[in-house]
From TrEMBL:
Residues 1-69 form the G protein gamma domain. GO terms for molecular function: G-protein beta-subunit binding. This is Guanine nucleotide-binding protein subunit gamma. SUPFAM superfamilies: Transducin (heterotrimeric G protein), gamma chain. One of its GO terms (biological process) is G protein-coupled receptor signaling pathway. SMART domains: G_gamma, GGL. The keyword Cell membrane applies.
Length: 69
């Protein structure tokens, strides 16, 4: 799609996007970093990558054994 647009149209789109982004409220990383850390630590107990999936609830566990004759 971007190849079909002229340079002027691309620049107009970029300016419009920047106008939208400038309206976003800014928060210092010192605050947001702590909030993200707290959230991740609070959700760690529910994370299957950290605590694993119980064998009986694992949909990818093989149901039968493999027998090679």
């Amino acid at each position: 799609m971007a190849q079909d647009l002229s340079e002027k149209e691309l620049l107009k789109m970029e300016v419009e996007q920047l106008k939208k982004e400038v309206k976003n409220t800014r928060v210092p990383i010192s605050k947001t970093g702590k909030e993200i850390k707290d959230y991740v630590e609070a959700q760690a107990g529910n994370d299957p990558l950290l605590k694993g999936v119980p064998e009986d609830k694992n949909p990818f566990k093989e149901k039968g054994s493999c027998a090679i004759s």
